[in-house]
Hints:
Strand content: 15-25%
Structural class: alpha/beta
Strand order of the largest sheet: 12-13-14-11-10-15-16
CATH topology of the largest domain: Aldehyde Dehydrogenase, Chain A, domain 1
Low-confidence stretches: none
CATH superfamily of the largest domain: Aldehyde Dehydrogenase, Chain A, domain 1
Number of domains: 3
CATH architecture of the largest domain: 3-Layer(aba) Sandwich
Helix content: 40-55%
Distance between the termini: 67 Å
Bound molecules: NADPH dihydro-nicotinamide-adenine-dinucleotide phosphate
Amino acid sequence: MATTISTATNGERLSSYDPSTGQVIGxxxxxxxxxxxxxxxxxxxxxxxxxxxxxxARAEELTAFRKALxxxxxxxxxxxxxxxxxxxxxxxxxxMMALGHVQHAAARAExxxxxxxxxxxxxxxFRATVTYLPLGVIGVIGPWNYPLFTPMGSIAYALAAGxxxxxxxxxxxxxxxxxxxxxxxxxxxxxxxxxxxxxxGATGAAxxxxxxxxxxxxxxxATGKRVMIAAAERLTPVLLELGGKDPMIVAExxxxxxxxxxxxxxxxxxxxxxxxxxxxxxVADAVHDKFVDKVIENVRALKTxxxxxxxxxxxxxxxxxxVKNHLEDAVAKGAKVHTGGAEAISGSYIQPTVLTNxxxxxxxxxxxxxxPVIPIQRVASxxxxxxxxxxxxxxxxxxxxxxxxxxxxxxxxxxRAGMTSVNSVMGFAGIPSLPFGGxxxxxxxxxxxxxxxxEFTRIKSTAEQVVSIPMNMMSFRQPKDMTKRLKGMIKQxxxxxxxxxxxDLFRKLxxx
Length: 512
Ligand code: NDP
């Protein structure tokens, strides 16, 4: 049987650390470009076989895979806790959400990829069909913040669509990915269907350059650009999920208790290391102070660290440094610290920090902080809130709280973002049928939902002539007066003519 985690040809290994203690918890191979190419070549063979199976057969194997993953839920939660630093409750939540996507993708693939009969327009004697076919081999480059849930949003959908996958996890969370690969090798009849290659950035760069049919990347905008440049060498399409600076808007008539509770969860879950974290909050002037008090009250009830903590260790020292820098920059520019703050950072633990008096001149309001920080800005009107919410190069998620749902929906519609939660936070991420992705610096392409399945397909258009007609436009043999007829058709079809529909004209011409 082929292995899903081959030993690296150079024999080098990478250590995975527990961020709360700094201790090594395991090692994995550092795969070279040659190793990556070999994995892709094996995946290509698996893809050929997998793509010919029926949707039902694929769904059955994916269901077996899901059940096997679920049977190892404790191990996954433990690895998530130890490699990423998140508390056990959040670890199990992540496992559950990841499994939900495997189930959804398997169940939806057939319908999402069902051939579509479309109008043949002026060529009404044709049958026009759009079909969706697997791409082949998908390279998935995953992040460290949700090392199971996020890549599964590509892996499960790519597999369900009939592709093979080569997955490169972050160097910070490789052990979890190796576990996924071991289970995949035991569950799928094709052992090379889902392979994992491990290593640092160079291994990811090799995958972006390899002969894959699409690269699905999650991470920073800077690395996303590098991936796109590398993939351009072969004109490999890319799907980029690049994080955000998600705004939350709280209207004057919002339920402040609910809004504050949701704000605190949205900003602090996973210690703020979520691409769809609430990163900026805009609150109507009339309720600003009350809302801030409620947020502070919620935050003071939270515990950082320990097995029963709400906030775990930050996954990497580099991320702690970014958060500290944002906090220092904000304070230097006049922000008021209500809880936490740069001084309260201890090793890999950051105390949840509430800031007010913030402005868009501060990094904490413009750059992705990716940490447990809640910057709250007072606004004079909802129009100002929308203007500020859209004052960003990012556009991933967003949330709106208002008493009147229609107002909340209207505000949400005006926010330039891929996703909006109304009177909740992050709701869109928990609904597998909703496509997930952003605009601008948040990237492009979609995971989840039917769009997330079709993201891993190639579109084939078929035009089938079902009836021959005397007037055949795809021929050089035309009547002498054809130019004149065409002139008339242009006028009738697209000008001020009386024939409303192409089909009517076709019938008229056929009856001649
Ligand atoms: P990166 O974008 O560098 O890493 C994301 C993934 O890309 C990892 O698997 C990484 O591997 C891999 N990678 C690194 N270099 C390359 C390359 N040249 N070609 C291909 N793949 C590569 O994120 P960071 O870990 O540096 O985090 C930086 C910032 O990115 C964070 O502060 C946060 O703002 C944002 N971020 C956003 C995420 C999101 O959910 N959208 C997730 C993670 C980070 P390796 O880890 O082995 O280097």
